[in-house]
């Protein structure tokens, strides 16, 4: 296995709406994440035709409102990241801390000041900030009044917001990402497009129109960032789930090809490749989509300002079988598939496939020749805090070790890999279920699904293991 580059960025990742809490402090406005109820029925409730973003605390819990109080405890948390040896920390900025409704002309200074302190704390420990501009959140006002990203007016709101961040922090922050898991819109438009059934989330015409507006907004931000700061790197971020045809049946291989094009390829083709892919017409015909509404300059803009790198989340692979309608199914990161008999599953039913990561990295790099950055990977599991305040998460260590080994093999294959930030480096609220019990972190946070607990932080066994990994630059696994 080839050694990791000396400048490889080892770190961890979080999202503001899942860890910060303080959802109405210091001038912050309401976001769509604030209106998403917690619990295993979260997606079912949001996908109901009557859902209208109303916050009903008599019927629902909203764990995102308190998170793990990272807003007030970021100094303590970043110090723990530094103790592990982090070279970078990927976090997101809450849009509504800067522009509470999204339509203001003047940003909220208290929000900007908070993130400046966070960035400066990272830099104090020589930790490179990696910032996601919008991570599954947007001003609730824009979702309710405009119907989310299907409305082209959101482009201007987003670009004003992103430009404000880059003007303020661009001299301190090199790596940025425009939208978290942008292709998640194909599976769950409420998270990334701010659209629910009552505002068109089931209408693929509106979904792809919303994606087009995000593509344009992203290119405008790339353009603006390059004009403002020399050497700044603006990336995209995509869910990547390596896909397999279930068997050698050509029908399954064709189905897998088409699924990979749609799920893994489409957004990357536009954002990294700079153009809508050759299979767009077939894809649009599949969903009965007419031509998208575009401004005359949109296509040239996408071509001229593609992203500088591709950030990706990788948790699992998927299999497809269109021949056997009775094939057993499994869950996944917003999308599932057919059960692969060669793979084990997590407690939440996600199929663990470290070799699939090497395959996926090679697929992406061979196609786009852009640097890659694994900005999410990890194992969601139920952890037990012992009476001695210890967490023995050997299962998490095994999962991460096997994926890091495959990263090294991908580098030996010639893949240009910037870094690795495992998801939820400190326990936080799950995006898919709003649960605290689905834990990913190296650091245990004393809080349960009902929001009860001391919020004290405890180092898990994986904390010390990951510290050795970073200290040896991936040689001690």
TrEMBL record:
Any one GO molecular function term: hydrolase activity
Key words of the record: Glycosidase, Hydrolase
This protein's record includes keyword Signal: no
Keyword Hydrolase applies: yes
Family (UniProt): Belongs to the glycosyl hydrolase 1 family.
InterPro entries per record: GH, GH_1_N_CS, Glyco_hydro_1, Glyco_hydro_1_AS
PANTHER family: 6-PHOSPHO-BETA-GLUCOSIDASE ASCB-RELATED (PTHR10353:SF122), GLYCOSYL HYDROLASE (PTHR10353)
Active site as annotated: 376
The protein's name: Glycoside hydrolase family 1 protein
């Amino acid at each position: 296995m080839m050694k990791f580059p000396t400048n490889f960025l080892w770190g961890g990742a979080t999202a503001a709406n899942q860890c910060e809490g303080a959802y109405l402090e210091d001038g912050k406005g309401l976001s769509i994440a604030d209106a998403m109820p917690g619990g295993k029925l979260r997606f079912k409730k949001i996908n109901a035709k009557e859902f209208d973003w109303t916050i009903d605390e008599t019927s629902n819990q909203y764990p995102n409102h308190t998170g793990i109080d990272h807003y007030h405890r970021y100094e303590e948390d970043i110090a723990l990241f530094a103790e592990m040896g982090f070279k970078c920390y990927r976090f997101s900025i809450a849009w509504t801390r800067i522009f509470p409704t999204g339509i203001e002309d003047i940003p909220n200074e208290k929000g900007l000041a908070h993130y400046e302190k966070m960035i400066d704390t990272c830099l104090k420990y020589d930790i490179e900030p990696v910032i996601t501009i919008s991570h599954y959140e947007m001003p609730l006002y824009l979702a309710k009044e405009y119907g989310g990203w299907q409305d082209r007016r959101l482009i201007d709101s987003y670009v004003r917001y992103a430009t404000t961040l880059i003007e303020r922090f661009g001299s301190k922050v090199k790596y940025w990402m425009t939208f978290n898991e942008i292709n998640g819109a194909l599976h769950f438009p409420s998270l990334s497009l701010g659209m629910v059934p009552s505002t068109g989330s089931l209408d693929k015409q509106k979904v792809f129109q919303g994606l087009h507006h995000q593509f344009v907004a992203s290119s405008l931000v790339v353009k603006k960032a390059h004009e403002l700061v020399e050497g700044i790197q603006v990336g995209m971020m995509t869910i990547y789930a390596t896909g397999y045809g279930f068997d050698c049946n050509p029908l399954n291989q064709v189905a897998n090809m088409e699924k990979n094009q749609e799920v893994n390829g489409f957004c990357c083709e536009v954002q990294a490749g700079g153009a809508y892919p050759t299979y767009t017409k077939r894809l649009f015909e599949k969903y009965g989509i007419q031509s998208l509404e575009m401004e005359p300059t949109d296509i040239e803009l996408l071509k001229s300002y593609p992203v500088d790198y591709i950030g990706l989340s990788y948790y699992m692979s998927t299999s497809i079988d269109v021949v056997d309608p009775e094939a057993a199914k499994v869950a996944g990161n917003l999308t599932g598939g057919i059960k692969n008999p060669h793979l084990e599953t997590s407690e939440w039913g996600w199929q663990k496939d470290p070799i699939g990561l090497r395959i996926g990295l090679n697929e992406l790099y061979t196609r786009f020749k852009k640097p890659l950055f694994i900005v999410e990977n990890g194992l969601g599991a139920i952890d037990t805090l012992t009476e001695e305040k210890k967490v023995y998460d050997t299962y998490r260590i095994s999962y991460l070790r096997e994926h890091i080994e495959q990263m090294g093999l991908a580098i030996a294959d010639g893949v240009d890999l910037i870094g690795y930030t495992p998801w939820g480096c400190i326990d936080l609220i799950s995006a898919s279920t709003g649960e605290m019990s689905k834990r990913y972190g190296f650091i245990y946070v004393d809080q349960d699904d009902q929001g009860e607990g001391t919020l004290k932080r405890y180092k898990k066994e994986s904390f010390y293991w990951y510290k050795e990994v970073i200290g040896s630059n991936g040689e001690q696994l």
